[in-house]
Recover the amino acids of this structure.
């Protein structure tokens, strides 16, 4: 499971997407991500699918557009992985 998370976050655009969604107070439409990322809609959709398949994002269809949020359990896992203070050396 951890390897899958790291693999999904192995692309800088995906890390930026997760950051944008984590700092948003509400679900974000794919159409709202193209400009900040400087990527085309099909490319952003590809990255969102990879993140969704890895269990990091939840997808909600609203008409023709999909809206995305961070999965709370995935956020907790990422937080635990990032908190290496207690890790033994």
């Amino acid at each position: 499971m951890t390897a899958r998370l790291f693999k999904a976050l192995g692309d800088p655009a995906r890390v930026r997407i997760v950051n944008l969604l984590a700092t948003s107070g509400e679900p974000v439409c794919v159409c709202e991500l193209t400009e900040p990322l400087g990527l085309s809609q099909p490319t952003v959709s590809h990255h969102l699918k990879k993140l969704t398949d890895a269990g990091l994002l939840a997808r909600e269809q609203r008409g023709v557009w999909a809206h995305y949020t961070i999965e709370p359990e995935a956020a907790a896992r990422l937080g635990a992985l990032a908190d290496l203070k207690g890790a033994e050396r």
